[in-house]
Amino acid sequence: MKGPHNVIRLIRTGATLERTGAMDVVLEAFRAPPRLRFAARMLGWPFKWLGLKGDPALPPATRALTALGPAYIKFGQVLSTRPDIVGEELADQLKYLQDKLPPFPTEIAKQMIEAELELPVSALFSEFSEPVAAASIAQVHRARLVDTDEDVAVKVLRPQIERAFRKDIDAFYLAARWIERIAPFSRRLRPVDVIAHFEGVVMGELDLRLESSAAAEFAANTEKDEHFQVPRPYWFLSSRNVMTLGWAEGIGLNDIALIDAAGHDRRVLAARVLQLFLNHALRDGFFHADMHQGNLKVAANGDIIAYDFGIMGRIDEYTRRVYAEILMGFIRKDYRRVAEVHFEAGYVPADRDIDDFARALRAVGEPIFGMEASRISMARLLAYLFEVTERFGMETRTELILLQRTMVVVEGVARSLDPHINIWQVASPVVERYIRENVGPKAVLRDLVKTARVLARFGPKLPALVEAQLIRAGNPATLPPRPQRSLAPLFWGLMALAAFGAGILVDRLV
Q1: Same structural domain for residues 177 and 256?
Q2: Residue 477 backbone dihedrals phi, psi, to 5 degrees
Q3: 334 has catalytic annotation
Q4: What is the pLDDT of residue 13?
Q5: How many Å apart are CA 294 and CA 132, to the nearest integer?
Q6: Catalytic: which of 84, 168, 290, 418?
Q7: Among residues 49, 69, 98, which one ends one of the domains?
Q8: What is the pLDDT of residue 169?
């Protein structure tokens, strides 16, 4: 029965957009071509009576997404950070989705806490407020601990939230499969894989034990970062459906008027948000992947406070180096090197022309390099980037989706604080520092040390491993009489070579 239910769910999506008046708003915001407008209308208009009403007090787009459910709200949260793509009016409407959704009753939250922590709320907290923020997955209450009198934030998942997400995701899978069949060119974008990635991220977000773990790791990684705070979790007051963190006092980055009234320099804050993200992604390979304004505050002293760690991104060391080299190439206008890195990493098929790709990248970089954000049309830029990926057969890299998505969101947050920000100038010091430390002689030295360490660990087993491989290859006659003695010099020779290379590098560095 899943198939018919999913079809109905997709039809209801179009019908809800039509019934709430959001269809026109969305199509206009995305500058949809005539064919797409016609198809969307045909999906929604005949079934308008099936659409959900939503809250008539809300603007059309917000009304539709809140009625459709949490997965749609997640999508709206991302768009709320990009007024340059969807327009100021729609982005302003969608900011409501960041932390102002209708809460569920406090009594239900208390019942869930007591069931999870197996103690009465009054035994844990001397004070427990009404919801102070409510988003797509959970809501937050301010409370005070009984034993230490500390203020804390208690996050409680919405009842039946996993079931609601599951319904949406099943429908998204159906839509992705339809898209692949109807539009074969879309297969390189791997829509089904993208939905699978989204599913994994969301399902992880529905276990607050994992979020507590992410908060603890993120806090440890960023402990020495200047002008940045991460509230630490209280493990004994956290479980699958409940999480308790230290209270973060500050002004939400979505409240520009209050930020100005408090005397904060928004240009400094914009640069700080962007540089912090780049630092965490490149240095640690572990970053906050849901950095919209609703999850960020500015403290009285100007520190950026991050919270809501349900979606975190992780990238390996090799990918970090690739990402940094691409950014550095754009900063230096070395488009040939940017193209080479794409080919070396396998992001562009080897049969494409590297010079043509470098020329296409120049057409991406030159119009925006050195320009302040207010003069860059991100919508046109993204449209051209899509053309480039299609022309050169670039497939969606699911392992980079969170990084790319977060970069778009963070850049949107920085723009909202400082419309004139020059992202290349702001990014340059962070990227240059990473390149200096991780792409060059120092990095080679570290790699050699790691190689020697691995060889040392497996050194005693190396002769036996080689012997086993030769036997599997069916050439036991080629084995020397005493392989352990005869192959040992090979191992120590490799070690000596690694040490010799390291010595040369140390000499050059000194």
Answers
A1: no
A2: -65, -20
A3: no
A4: 80
A5: 12
A6: 290
A7: 98
A8: 81
